[in-house]
Write a structure and sequence with these properties.
The chain is flat, with a radius of gyration of 27 Å. The protein contains one helix and 23 strands. The two termini are about 55 Å apart.
Length: about 350
């Protein structure tokens, strides 16, 4: 009898392990990458990596929490609630101010989804590695251009300090794009200490939008010749649109729904075109020259039932650098339906995760 109980217990344990492994597998499928190497970085440098998490399932997914195995890496989550096709991020921030030397961390991410009113959870892990140099220090740790008006020239200075060999030098700075220029000046050299001032300039030609780049300082150190420096910022467009996202909600097949947007600029301009990839959107704009334009966007529900997501591009007579865009969302439902359920979606899923409910990508 005791042997029979032990056998049953072993089978239950094996089944639980198998179910957990299955749950982990469905979570891992949402990660395009699960490991990142920071390489050798300077002390004080802002060293951050974002692991994208894409919801490939028909059910909504929520990023619940993330924890780190090491204090050398601080984890966080961006865009936690993901509908089908949405992308969230597991953010790994390498602590280069407190830690030096070679370090690695495992980040454990917990996600959940709704199984007919029951919350089901699963986990996946991502890993980061890096080597924080104690002899090179950046002040500040990154170049950040926040909310810069398009067409503005701006610069920021980074102090690069080294303590070690007297013949250490920065021989080159690589990675600058056509919209970024750099200027390097050696300001101090005495005993075994060297200091450089690195000026990073963003040109007026920088396009609107968020950007994240990396400069690489090439040094005379044969063992670790390259040191990365992150450059990021947001260029605010001269032409703005309100709202930035246009939500039409559920629209029955065959119906048309109008909404209005406001297009503004710093000086008078004319809208020359409004375009999108799908013909289900129609536009009514004036042909005036003005700093403000009211545009009517009409959604015509004439496609197959399902979700619609389109980017609308707005061009002006000020040139290609003075354009704007917004995203429009809608859901086409059959004329007799008006529920929140995606047509054709099935609610029958396994407890180990939304297996079998992978959405078309």
């Amino acid at each position: 009898m005791r042997m029979r109980r032990l056998t049953i217990l072993a089978l239950l344990v094996a089944l639980a392990v198998a179910n957990r492994a299955s749950a982990e597998a469905w979570v891992e499928k949402m990660f395009a990458e699960r490991e990142h190497e920071f390489g050798t970085v300077a002390r004080g440098a802002d060293t951050i990596h974002r692991f994208p998490v894409k919801n490939i399932y028909k059910q909504d997914i929520e990023l619940v929490s993330v924890r780190s195995s090491c204090g050398c890496t601080a984890p966080s989550l961006e865009n936690k609630r993901l509908k089908t096709g949405d992308v969230g991020y597991v953010v790994a921030s390498f602590n280069t101010r407190t830690f030096t030397g070679v370090h690695s961390a495992t980040l454990t991410v917990t996600v959940q989804w709704d199984d007919n009113g029951v919350r089901r959870r699963g986990e996946a892990q991502v890993r980061v590695h890096g080597n924080v140099r104690s002899d090179v220090v950046f002040q500040p740790g990154a170049v950040k251009f926040d909310n810069v008006q398009q067409g503005t020239k701006i610069e920021q200075q980074v102090r690069v300090s080294y303590a070690g060999r007297s013949d250490w030098r920065v021989t080159d700075v690589r990675g600058a794009t056509e919209d970024i220029e750099v200027e390097l000046t050696e300001t101090e050299r005495y005993s075994n200490r060297v200091t450089y001032d690195l000026v990073v300039r963003m040109k007026e030609s920088a396009p609107a939008g968020y950007f994240r780049e990396q400069l690489v300082l090439v040094t005379s150190d044969a063992r670790n010749p390259r040191i990365p420096l992150h450059v990021e910022g947001r260029v605010v467009p001269q032409i703005s649109v309100a709202p930035e996202a246009l939500m039409f909600g559920e629209v029955a097949y065959g119906e048309q729904v109008p909404k209005k947007i406001l297009v503004r600029g710093p000086k008078p301009f004319k809208i020359v075109s409004l375009e999108c990839a799908d013909g289900c959107f129609q536009f009514k704009a004036d042909d005036r020259v003005s700093e403000r334009h009211i545009v009517e966007v009409v959604f015509a529900a004439k496609g197959q039932p399902g979700k619609v997501k389109q980017t609308i591009h707005i061009a002006t007579d000020l040139g290609s650098g003075f354009a704007a865009s917004l995203t429009a969302y809608a859901t086409i439902v059959p004329a007799e339906e008006s529920s929140d359920v995606i047509p054709g979606d099935s609610s029958a899923v396994s407890a180990s995760g939304p297996a079998g409910q992978v959405a078309a990508q």
